[in-house]
Amino acid sequence: MLTLFLLICFGASVLGSICGIGGGIIIKPLLDAFGVLDAATVSFLSGVTVLSMTAYSVVKNKEGGEPRVDKKTGFLLAAGAASGGAAGKKVFSLVLLYYKNADKLGLIQAVCLLAVTVGTLFYTLKKERIRTMHVTDPALCFGIGFALGMVSSFLGIGGGPLNLVVLFFFFSLSAKSAAKSSLYIIFFSQCTSLVLTFLGGEIPQFELSLLFVMILGGIGGGAVGRFLNRRISEKAVGRLFIMVMSFMILISTYNIVKFKG
């Protein structure tokens, strides 16, 4: 099982780093599909993996001075994402407490993830016809970060494709710049969510070896993904993103059927 977790986390983090989707959108539904752990445990482990990958990528991108949104906007998005991460964690806890059933939680997450993925794919295919914006208002930037952080934390996916669509539309970023900015937002939202999980004593039961393997896969995948991102074209990044979204629609649909049954 450790090998399976390592391969999923490494491969997802490679794709997540290249496309800026964090990897969690692949890790979470894939592990749900295999059914080896309950939804709450998968969410936690996926969040830790995403945090490790994005932490590595954010540090390396900063060292390299690679482009993303400007510093002021980036700070506001990050602050909003941190606040949203706390809100998303609270919603997650309330839903789990209300249903007292991990499968119900998994079903809700799968439905939300499917909606996000379908909407993202539709926008991506039509984005050439959609006029984008150049948002600079501080309150709106913070609000956008908050919304992204909340979704990221609740779904345990790191925000992923939704981040990219929002960055494309509201800030008119290129695919590569949006990917780097997305990882920046994901880092802060996941960091806040996991800190609150620790402080609240809500850490699920799992084998510690799984956590180490997933972190290793996250950092290793982030390193390889960053290397590849710098060597492929914007067009290739866009095509890879569409392929990943199409695959995730199938996995999310499968998970909805699985959790309903």
Using DSSP, what is the number of strands?
0
- Strand-and-helix sequence, N→C? HHHHHHHHHH
* Uncertain spans: none
Shape: globular
Provide the structure class: mainly alpha
The average pLDDT is 84
What's the structural blueprint in terms of helices and strands?
Blueprint lengths: L1 H18 L4 H11 L4 H26 L6 H29 L2 H25 L11 H18 L4 H12 L3 H25 L8 H22 L4 H27 L1
Please, could you describe this protein's structure?
The longest helix has 29 residues, at 71-99. α5 runs antiparallel to α10 (234-260). By secondary structure, the protein is mainly α. The two termini are 24 Å apart. The radius of gyration is 17 Å and the shape is globular. It is 82% helix and 0% strand. The protein has one domain. It has 10 helices and no strands.
Core attributes:
261 residues; mainly alpha; 0% strand; globular
Structure, briefly:
By secondary structure, the chain is mostly helical. It has helices spanning 2-19, 24-34, 39-64, 71-99, 102-126, 138-155, 160-171, 175-199, 208-229, 234-260. Helix content is 82%, strand content 0%.
